[in-house]
Amino acid sequence: MRRTPIVILGTVAGLVGVLSFHTAPAHLTLGVLPPASAPRSSPTTSVVAGSPPGPGSHGANSPPTSTSPTTSKSTPATTPATTPATTPATTPATTIPTASRSANGAEVNYNYGILSVSVTVTGAKITKVGIASLDDGGNFRSQSIDQQSIPVLEQQALQAQSANIQGVSGASYTSAGFSQSLQAALTQLGFS
Amino acid sequence: MTSVLRGAGEAAERPQAIHHLEHVMGTVVTIDVYTDAGTPGAEVYRNLARARAILQRADTVFSTWKVNSPISRLRRGEITCEQAPPEVAEVLEQCETAREMSCGWFDPWAMPGGVDPTGYVKGWAAQRALSALASTEIRGAIVNAAGDIASIGGPEFAKPFRIGIVDPSSPGHLACVVELPGAIATSGTYERGHHLIDPHSGQPTARVASASVSGADLGLADALATAVAVAGEEALALVEGFYGYEALNIAFDGTWRWTANFPFASTSS
Fold first, then answer.
1. Sign of CA dihedral B62, B64, B69, B71
2. Among A101, B25, B127, B183, which residue's beta carbon has the most beta carbons within 10 A?
3. Distance, in angstroms, between B3 CA and closest chain A CA?
4. CA distance B223 to B108
């Protein structure tokens, strides 16, 4: 059973028809911001100089201008100087397979135990990342709670930093141990 | 699985909320129900119980980790879609629609081991749980499934919920705040960079780009966020075509791109 019934194909055909009207760039009014000090120029048409919009920036209809997220009340001004803004983006491999492939990374120590990361790659992009195994000393219950709690702990840490928000949306899994195991999994998939 | 009533004895202007954590679907789903000051009525707690039951039921039917769940049996070919609980056909049909709407960038059929609607079910279940919470006794409610959020109303009358979006290049910080028009989902993709060294481990590290999509339905927002995270600007154009849906993409090089009406929060709050 790999497909839903044929009855919805009519809907699908209709949708595809509708979509074909919307994929032309001429229909777009996209906001664009270059990285703060990126060495590359953005290929898109409208460029707003400055940093991305922070919580204190303008409303939905006016492009954010010069408010940096690091000056907002929800973000400490002492954000560590991260390298992405000053480092050229890596170019994906020239030959790009389109099938999805998965691998598990090496087990690495993290703050509360040992974890292994699983990764799924489609073409040159990572499309799914998860925890393949997590060992906190053999207690299965606390193991599963640990695993489940990681994203929530990260969210709550963020939420606590900003007084006036009711939730946090974001891809998580950001610890150093997670990154290490992810690297190992990517190596298995031939990413270098 | 704890519910905490918060707000009554705290800062005066803070809205009162019932906070609930549900361990379900391999993650933790938080349910926050905002009410008027005073003791919430029994209906609020009854609806909370219904919302929890919806989440647990989704886990029972759709968990690919549970060997005998209907979705696991379907994946092994032991039962047909017609023999499975009715939710299965409903979800697969919506997945098919989302796959077409995302031009194939969101594709549960491309997963190893056969069709895997896990990526859709989380948002779908959160949206269903949210609908159980609606009543005249509440000001608003949020169901947050590990960062994918469905909401109705707001923390106070005529105030929207404000949701922070994680900065992918600095995961301990927020990139921006949005005023939620319903649902928002954020997906991430990782890119490997040898030039990026984690100062703690000394190892090269991967970095993440993130895509957030807001709109009325969390299931579709989630699918479209996956599309934008993977496809980038091309899929941003796609989202622009759907009425009521908006997208923000933060690329690997730190570039921000967003659709015309992405709901950035205004200065005044």
1. positive
2. B183
3. 15
4. 10
| Cβ proximity of B223 and B97 under 8 Å | no
Q: Which residues of A touch B210 (CB under 8 A)?
A: 170-171
> Is B114 near chain A, with CB under 8 Å?
yes
Q: Strand, helix or coil at B181?
A: coil
Interface-testing mutation among B59, B176, B213, B234, with chain A (most A C-beta atoms within 10 A): B176
Token pair, residue B254, equals 């730190």
Please state the pTM of the whole predicted model. 0.64
User: Residue A142: helix, strand or coil by DSSP?
Assistant: helix
Whether ipTM exceeds 0.90: no
The span from the CA of A35 to the CA of B108, in Å, is: 33
Residue listed under structure tokens 């950001």: A174
Query: Residue B128 belongs to what H/E stretch?
Result: helix B118-133
Report the C-alpha gap between A149 and A136 in whole angstroms: 13
Q: Do A32 and B255 touch (CB under 8 A)?
A: yes
Q: Report d(CA A45, CA A24) in Å as an integer.
A: 14
* B104: closest chain A residue by CA: A16
Look at strands A113-122 and A100-104 and give their pairing.
antiparallel
CA proximity to B119, closest of B208, B220, B244: B220
Residue in A closest to B143 by C-alpha: A167
Cβ–Cβ below 8 Å for B203 and A85? no
Angle between helices A9-19 and B86-101 (to 10 degrees): 20
Is residue B103 exposed (0-12), middle (13-18) or buried (19+ Cβ within 10 Å)?
middle
The residue type at B180:
L
Contacts of B92 (CB under 8 A, 6+ apart): A4, B81, B108, B115, B117
Per residue of chain B (269 residues), give pLDDT as tens: 445 555 444 444 456 888 888 888 877 788 999 998 777 889 999 999 999 999 999 999 999 888 999 999 999 999 999 999 999 999 999 999 999 988 888 888 887 778 889 889 999 999 999 999 999 899 999 999 888 999 999 998 888 999 989 888 766 678 899 999 899 999 877 665 555 555 555 555 556 688 999 999 999 999 999 888 888 888 899 999 999 999 999 988 888 999 999 999 875 44
The chain-wide mean pLDDT, for chain A, equals: 49
